[in-house]
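Memo to structure team: turn this sequence into structure tokens by end of day. - J.P.
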Amino acid sequence: MVLLFLPVRLGQVAQAKWGTMVKLNNGGFEDIVIAISPTELEDHKIVDNIKVKASNYLFYATNQRFYFKTVKVVIPSTWTTKPEYKRVSKEFYEKADVIVADPSLKYGDEPYSLQYGGCGEMGRYIHFTSNFMTNDSLQDIYGSRGKGEGGGVKNCLT
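Reply from structure team:
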């Protein structure tokens, strides 16, 4: 796997209890790890939308409480290497705070937060699908990736 560092302003993601490296610094979360599943086919629109649209989606989905100061995107090693990519050191798909992966059987392409505790407790990760990240027609169903209008990240799996 390779890593792309993104200094961006994004919305909040719940800090996971399972190995997260997230730090809160002056209202901004640092070292958020977003990992693209090794099974995802190469599509740089996913990365572009993480940089631009996913950030806003998360910001609005969490009631504009916080922002992401820095994000690390873990890119599958099967994707074409780019000069801005760096080798991963301690960031792994299995420990990511946000994943881009295959649709869930229960929720399909709808974003959700996997958690083992009750509603309102910190989750394990937030799950987006590549289809959600790249297919603009899904905005009619789940709302805008850019503004978080309509829908939102499900934070309780029932």
